[in-house]
Each structure stands twice: as C-alpha cells, then as structure tokens.
Write a structure and sequence with these properties.
- The protein has 392 residues and is an alpha/beta fold.
- The chain folds into 2 domains: 132 residues, Aspartate Aminotransferase, domain 1 (Alpha-Beta Complex); 213 residues, 3-Layer(aba) Sandwich (Aspartate Aminotransferase, domain 2).
- Helix content is 40%, strand content 16%.
- It has 13 helices and 14 strands.
- Strands 4-10-9-8-7-5-6 form a 7-stranded mixed beta sheet, with helices on both faces. A 4-stranded mixed beta sheet has the order 1-2-3-12. A 3-stranded antiparallel beta sheet has the order 11-14-13.
- A hairpin with a 5-residue loop joins strand 1 and strand 2.
- Helix 4 packs across helix 8.
- It binds pyridoxal-5'-phosphate.
- Pyridoxal-5'-phosphate (PLP) binds next to helix 4.
Length: 392
Amino acid sequence: MVPQSVSSSFLDSVAADLTALDTAGLRRRLRVVAGGRGPEVELEGRRVLNLSSNNYLGLASDPLLGVPEPSADGVGSAASRLIAGTAASHQSLETDLADWLGVEAALLFNSGYQANVGAVSALVGPDDAVFSDELNHASLIDGCRLSRARVFVYRHNDPDDLAHQLRSCPPVRRRLVLTESLFSMDGDLANVASLTAIAHAHDAAILVDEAHAYGALGPAGRGIAADLAVDFRVGTFGKAFGTFGAFFAGPRVAIEWVLNRARSFVFTTALPMPLVDQTRRALAIVRGSEGDARRAALARAMDVFHVELSAAGFRLPPPSPIIPLRVKGGDPASVMALSADLLAEGLFAQGIRPPTVPPGTARLRLSLMATHTPEQLRSAAQTLARHRARFT
Ligand SMILES: *Cc1c(COP(=O)(O)O)cnc(C)c1O
C-alpha cells in the first residue's frame, strides 16, 4: 500500500457522509453480473432471471453481434476527434446514422451522458432559455446546469404546461425544449408530436432523447419521433444496440456548432475503432429484418408480461419495454428489501431509489428483452404476484 496522502480528517468527513447515505437507505453497491447479458445471468453465485438490463433486443451478448474485431487502424484512437483521433470508422458510422434517421448529419459521443451534457450546453448559453420535463434523465439536467441558460421545468409530459412556461419566459436569444421519448424510469411515451408543435409555435427548438427507444421502437427501430419534425435527436448504443457510445443528430449547422463547442466532445479521446465498427454492424442488424424480428419479439414480450401482471392485480401503464412497479411507502428500505427477497426467489429486479427517481417514489424498474420467453415472463409474474401486497 502506498502511504495515505490525504489527511485523515478529510477521509473521516467522507466516511461520515457515506454513513449518512447508508442510514437513509441510499447507499449503492456494485455487484458483478456474469454469464452474459441475456434473460438469465449469474448474480452473487446464483442463476437468476434478468429483468434489470437495457438489452432490449438481446444483442449485448449475442453471438450474432459478435465481439469487436481488429481494425486496420488499430484499437485506441489516441487523440480527441478534432486533433488526431478521427478514423474512417467514426465517419462511416456517422454517415450510416444520418442515413438511417433521415437527418442531415450525426456526431458520435462517447456515451449518452456525454452527448446530452455536451449538446445541451453547446446549444444554449447564458442568453438563452431551456425547458425541461421534470422527469428528464440526469444527463439532460446536468446539460441544463452546465449551459447556464435560464431553466424552466415543465410538468411531466404536459404540453399545456410547456406552452404556459414558454409564454411566461421573457425574451431570450434561443429557446430549447428537452424531453426523453420512452421515459427511462416510468416506461411511458412522451407526446412528442404535441410537444414539438408547442415548441415550434413558440419559436423554440426541441431535442428528443431516444436512448431507450432507438433500436427497440418505431419503424426500422428509428424511435417514436421517427417521422416527426423534431430538431435534434440523441441516442445511445449502450441499450438496444448492445455496444457502447452515443450520438447527437440533426441539421448540419447544429452538428458543426456542437463539434466545435461541446466540451464533452472536444476534450475527450475518440471511441476505439473496433468498437465503432462493431456498432456499425449492430446498426445494420437494428435496421434490417433481424431487427424487425426482434422488435416483434419484444412487442410480444411486452404484451405477455402486461397481461400476466394485470391478471395478478398490478395497475400498469400501457405495454412498454420498461415496467415501473412502485412499492408501498415509496421508501428506499422497502424497495431494497423487496428486491433482495425477489433475488432469493431467482428474480433479478433492481430497486430504484432517489436521486434516480423523486423521493417517495422508490420502485422496481423491470425491463424486457426480445429474448425473454413467454414462460420466463409468466413465471416472473407469478413470483411478483406472491408479493403483490408490497406494491401500490
Ligand atoms: C441511459 C440514458 C442516457 C445515457 O446514455 P449512456 O450511453 O448510458 O451514457 C441518456 N439519456 C437517457 C434517457 C438514458 O436513459
């Protein structure tokens, strides 16, 4: 061990904060998931049904997707995109993405988190205003904070409240509306058509984060805003695509601005080329007939699970790849105890606590894959039904 370089009073203070987190039931711990990322995984030495990953099409550990293969350009990009990091691989994937989405251009980011933080803070600044759904992902919230734009938070998926807030905003240089499409912790769909109409009627642009929808929903997996006139789109490869990385897409002038000004793009090393090439293969699968077949299988899984859980007395939003089940009391301790009990019965259903969700709304957040079988889902619903009284 190297000598402690930090003063012990500093570490004592951090330890006290950690204890407070523990006492509040909010301390999180890392757990190793082994045996792939399919419907069955190993967790803490036992084989369990996986209802906790975002592997919607089942591609993440599927032999069909394969593994990253050597690239003629090597592995590491060795520089940021703007210095010496851009390879043909990066540009090919960007071209393919723009073609798939029918937009002028796309720009890779190293993760969806970085795409949102970078794009939002580049698109709006201190002279501007940003309008954000109250349930938006942390990366959109952090983008708002970093932008130093004036922030208006509108009620969840409420076009009327958005309109009200746009009207109440004093004159600014630019206005930007931010929404997810398939909401990550609630599994509901934004009313993107109405939000877009309201935004445009008030001279605002709209950015839609389809992290959970791209690949999984819409024609050729192009998301729920596929055919809508939204201004900017954000997607990730870490979910339905089964790889890693992300993108921002839209009009070329916006791409040019963002690649000049998004600090999470400018000041970071470009994605490794073999991973980018693998994501290109993933995109080909997503847009092709295999993608269609998997989306159909995912839709069947959504229906089966919805029917089974409804029959067991759960009150649910419409069928979705993401199913939130609120626990009675909505407190962290209840949800974590329930999650542990389910794990002991072979069900991996992660408990979700603040700050990921608002205080008092702790929940199990279940997610489905194209590769879950109806039998697996029926058995999961039966297990959940045995604990029905612990849910709202
Ligand atoms: C997961 C997620 C992100 C972040 O994407 P990563 O590639 O995992 O960093 C951004 N927005 C939403 C809505 C997400 O759910």
